[in-house]
Write a structure and sequence with these properties.
Aldehyde Dehydrogenase, Chain A, domain 2, alpha/beta, 24 strands, binds NADPH dihydro-nicotinamide-adenine-dinucleotide phosphate
């Protein structure tokens, strides 16, 4: 099935007629073509967005809200089609696409459809000076949204929903590796009555299509989720043009387990936080630190549970671990397993590619647990972004805090303990943007989402996202 760009409310081939193969990770076969769009396609999308901006920015909040909620309802009505497409394009288990990815994409539109009607600005009375100040929150204009392949429609809509809710028009690029659900979305946008040009979806490679969005002088803000080195490159290109930037980047998140936690709950959740979506979630707890007194028990129980996970075809309902997203990503993760061996890491389980009968060319890898002797080894410091976790024991709260913070990333951390004071102490001191205690990836869309250090700049979610996608203008009136 061939994919097309969605520009000005209709589908188009790329102007220069360049295409990229789209692979099905479950069997390694090409199943369609994706546009490899260039600057001329981005210019076309920008012009459509610019033409739509005046009217859309003046559209009432109730009307914008109504359209966003309609998009959400249509996604829910077409759930199965989107679920199948996401699973096929990405390799993720169909059960995950059905329980998480597509429902969350629908929630993103519903949430920001509601949030925009509650988005208020401030006023300040300058007492004794006979003046009042009020703040206008104005849409920026045409903005760019660039998203990765791991949670394709989920993260794509997490950006475009607040952008359009706030009255902007958008030029958006999903990952070229997983373009399918963003492509299908166009039809739903039309059915929901989104005016043409408000959202334009252009497909292609990062360093051509994505780069053309970032380089466009009149696209005034960029919301990007992806790798840290890509984020650094985007920041460099955008800085001389003074673009507003939101960068959600990589992570190497600690999962810190104390002996006083609810053990069974912790064990079950740690399986999920380690290997959900084949470990390809920026929030996965890829560094597991366990208090020494329960380390041996945890190691045995955890490995036993991981061995029971079924690596299988994504379309099978009992598959726990589907395919990795691409051949090159599979090779990268395998390289890290080799690095672990060179660094004297002990592979407690996994470590091998899996050949599934009938799908031998798919990109499958066993969930892998590696015991490390030091937290400073490469596999404990660098983002692998696959089904690989490290485990090691710790003795004191202070020791584990030092190790948790001793990475360049700062996205999220998970704590397992029933000691409230300890939870609060560590939450204060962990160098991350998000802390979960006794749970993982529980999301309330009103809360700020994002990281510090090499995990990014800015926050998404709730009013933070609406603030990013608007400019604050203060008006001072003397009376
Ligand atoms: P990449 O950085 O490779 O790509 C992300 C997006 O940017 C893709 O659409 C990509 O296009 C595009 N891109 C690549 N180069 C450029 C460029 N020069 N200019 C503009 N756009 C460009 O990341 P991945 O897709 O590999 O995603 C995995 C990464 O994303 C991991 O590091 C992960 O931690 C991070 N991530 C962070 C999250 C967070 O919220 N902090 C959430 C999810 C993932 P193309 O794919 O076509 O090359």
């Amino acid at each position: 099935m061939n994919i097309q760009n969605y520009i000005n409310g209709s589908y188009h081939n790329p102007i220069q007629n360049n295409w990229i193969d789209n692979y099905n990770p479950s069997n390694g076969e090409v199943y369609g073509q994706t546009p490899n769009s260039t600057k001329v396609d981005i210019d076309k999308a920008y012009n459509a967005a610019k033409s739509a901006f005046r009217q859309w920015s003046q559209t009432t909040l109730e009307e914008r809200s109504r359209i966003l909620i309609k998009i959400s309802e249509l996604l829910e009505a077409n759930l199965d089609r989107f679920v199948e497409a996401e699973s096929k394009d990405n390799g993720k288990p169909i059960s995950l696409a059905k329980s998480v990815d597509i429902p969350r994409a629908a929630s993103n539109f519903r949430f920001f459809g509601n949030a925009i009607t509650q988005f208020a600005s401030e006023s300040h009375e300058s007492v004794g000076q006979n003046a009042i100040n009020y703040t206008l929150r104005q849409p920026i204009g045409v903005v760019g949204c660039i998203s990765p392949w791991n949670l394709p429609l989920y993260l794509f809509t997490w950006k475009i929903a607040p952008a359009i809710a706030a009255g902007n028009c958008v030029v958006a690029k999903p990952s070229e590796v997983t373009p399918m659900t963003a492509y299908l979305l166009g039809k739903i946008l039309n059915e929901a009555g989104l005016p043409k040009g408000v959202l334009n979806i252009v497909h292609g490679l990062g360093n051509t299509t994505g780069q053309a969005i970032v380089e466009h002088p009149d696209i005034k803000a960029i919301s990007f989720t992806g790798g840290t080195s890509t984020g650094a490159h985007i920041a460099k290109v955008a800085a001389p043009m003074f673009k507003k930037l939101s960068l959600e980047l990589g992570g190497k998140n600690p999962n810190i387990i104390f002996a006083d936690c609810d053990y069974d709950d912790m064990l079950e959740t740690t399986v999920r936080s380690s290997f959900a979506n084949q470990g390809q979630i920026c929030l996965c707890g890829s560094r597991i630190f366990v208090e020494a007194s329960i380390y041996e028990k945890f190691k045995t129980d955890f490995v036993e549970k991981i061995k029971q996970l079924k690596v299988g075809h994504p379309s099978e309902s009992d598959t726990n671990i589907g395919a990795l997203v691409s051949k090159s990503h599979l090779e990268k993760v395998k390289d890290y397993i080799n690095i672990a061996k060179e660094e004297n890491g002990v592979i407690l389980c996994g470590g091998n590619e899996v050949k599934i009968k009938g799908f031998e060319n798919g990109y499958y890898l066993e969930p892998t647990v590696i015991e490390v002797k030091t937290d400073e080894c490469r596999i404990n410091q660098e983002e692998i972004f696959g089904p690989v976790v490290t485990i090691m024991p710790f003795n004191t709260e202070d020791d584990v805090l030092q190790m948790a913070n001793k990475v360049k990333y700062g996205l999220s951390a998970t704590l397992w303990t029933n000691n409230l004071k300890r939870t609060m102490r560590l939450s204060n001191q962990l160098q991350v943007g998000i802390v979960w205690a006794n749970t993982w990836m529980m999301r309330d869309l009103r809360t700020p989402f994002g990281g510090i250090k090499a995990s990014g700049v800015g926050r998404e979610g709730g009013f933070e996202a609406l603030r990013f996608f608007t400019e604050a203008k203060n008006v001072c009136i003397k009376y």
